[in-house]
Amino acid sequence: MSNVFIFFIVIWCIVFMVLLAIGGFFMFRKFLKRMPKDNGMSELDWQDYYIQKALPLWNDEARELLNELVSPVPELFRDVAKEKIGGRVSKIALEEHATTIELDHIMRGYIVATPKRDHKFMKKKLTELNIDYTPYLNLFELADDEKNKFSIFDHKEAITDAKRK
Predict the structure, then answer these.
(1) What is the DSSP letter of 130?
(2) 111 near 88, Cβ under 8 Å?
(3) Residues sharing a CB contact under 8 Å with residue 58, sequence separation 6 or more, in sequence order
(4) Continuous segment of H or E residues that includes residue 5
(5) Is residue 85 a contact partner of residue 66, using CB atoms and an 8 Å limit?
(6) Most CB contacts within 10 A, which of 5, 14, 94, 110?
(7) pLDDT tens for residues 92-126?
(8) In the prediction, which pLDDT does 147 show?
(9) Cβ proximity of 57 and 100 under 8 Å
(10) Within the chain, where are the H helices?
(11) What 3-state class would DSSP assign to 36?
């Protein structure tokens, strides 16, 4: 009987340590995103800045589309995904001096802010919504990539050029 109890304690310690490591990993990633860059603001500070500045540009249709596009994301991460995509869309619209957020802004921001590993799901969702993403195929190369880490607020010229094509 005592061997079973000791075995249970050892298994529980291993499970506890693994869960602690996973949680620590995600907390550390969030901490790194909050660290200020060369310009004094972090990635999340810029995201919040663009969202707040562009709030008047978001109409109900744009908000509904954004909510629909992030619906495949697990609920636990959906708010983070929505903020990341919303920040990128807002930056694009502000740089172009738009009066409202259009489908084009949402598409460009959505593609660039979505990690490459999720492109399959993203294309499936866009097809499901009958949204043609072929004009934006070149933006898939600029998408958020965990291996080649960069700010999702980079690539201004390439994203603007995609609109012209």
Answers:
(1) T
(2) no
(3) 86, 90, 100, 101
(4) helix 2-34
(5) yes
(6) 110
(7) 999 999 999 999 999 999 988 888 888 888 899 99
(8) 47
(9) yes
(10) 2-34, 43-54, 60-69, 75-95, 103-113, 119-128, 156-164
(11) coil
69 neighbors 113 (Cβ within 8 angstroms): no
Structural contact between residues 92 and 105, judged by C-beta atoms closer than 8 angstroms? yes
Distances (CA, A) of 114 to 3, 10, 32, 49: 49, 40, 19, 19
**pLDDT one-digit tens code per residue, 3-44:** 888 999 999 999 999 999 998 888 887 777 778 877 788 888
Q: CA neighbours within 13 Å on the CB side: how many for 46?
A: 21
Q: Angle at the Cα of 54 (from 97 to 150), degrees rounded to 5? A: 90
Contact between residue 142 and residue 155 where contact means Cβ atoms under 8 Å apart: yes
Question: Distance (Å, rounded) from C-alpha 41 to C-alpha 151?
Answer: 12
Q: How confident is the model at residue 54 (pLDDT cuts 50, 70, 90)?
A: very high
Tokens matching residue 25: 């990993």
Spatial CA neighbour of 52 closest among 65, 41, 68, 38: 41
The two tokens of residue 121 are 């799901």
